[in-house]
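Q: Start with the shorter request: fold the first protein.
A: Done. Sequence, then structure:
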Amino acid sequence: MSLETQINQDIKAAMIAKDNARLRGLRAIKAAILLAKTEKGGADEMSEETEIKVLQKLVKQRKESAEIYQQQNREDLYQIEVEEQEVIESYLPKQLDRAAIEEVIKGIITETGAASIKDMGKVMGLANQKLAGQADGRTISEVVKSLLS
């Protein structure tokens, strides 16, 4: 079942259950999917990889907004962003913890023979491919920097 079909079914269920927080998150996902499909070069059917990228982008937006709202002491808006983020994350593959990410990147470093920070681009490219959907880019970048320096 495609993500879009799943989202449509879950929207109906959330409407019946009157779960407003879940409904907001699901509608955000649906809007992002429709937008990705209508963008120039977008296909009628999205690959799973593209769906994951769309969801990761939404999660990143929610995290950044939540940080800003928390800094401005807007607890009401902060809570809304966090609720939506949790709903969106439930459709992403399970995220790896930092130790697991380090193990994968250590393997990539040995595989590529990277020795210094100059080789970061090479390592990042492979790490982003292997860890797609399982870790965010910022965490991957931090781990690569710490292991190469």
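Q: Next, the second protein, separately.
A: Sequence, then structure:
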Amino acid sequence: MTRGARIGELDGFRAGPVSRQASARLVVATEGPGFTDITGRVAAFVARSGVAHGVLTVFCRHTSASLTIQENADPDVQTDLMTALDGFAPRHGAYVHGSEGPDDMPAHIRTLVTDASLAVPVLDARLALGTWQGIYLIEHRDRPHRREVVLAVVGG
């Protein structure tokens, strides 16, 4: 039981038919480990889709890169998150799988604890992200890669 919490009424409730959908692929060329902010491209896709109210799915087609929604104001957050992931899944751990190099299995583990896909509401033809939120592709491998992200939005 949560003490003192108050749950408000529904605000801005809307209902209607699903009448539009759109999809596209986004290729992200990474330079190695780190966060790539894809929020602008994803927002442009939603604007082009014509969907005013619905849900967006963002899906990463890889098992050694992932997606996250994180703070977009202070780059130190990304640095600290990478440090935490390095501690959680170190590159030279005692892994059985190693045929693709010492960074491959840690990359799979990091993807396991982050996300391969995200769902983001679309309200008033915009991503319903919080003030300090951005959508990021996280590259977990040590060398550059071309990562494919699939975007799909449905709504009205």
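Q: Describe the second briefly.
A: The longest strand covers residues 20-29. The helical segments are 39-49, 75-88, 104-113.
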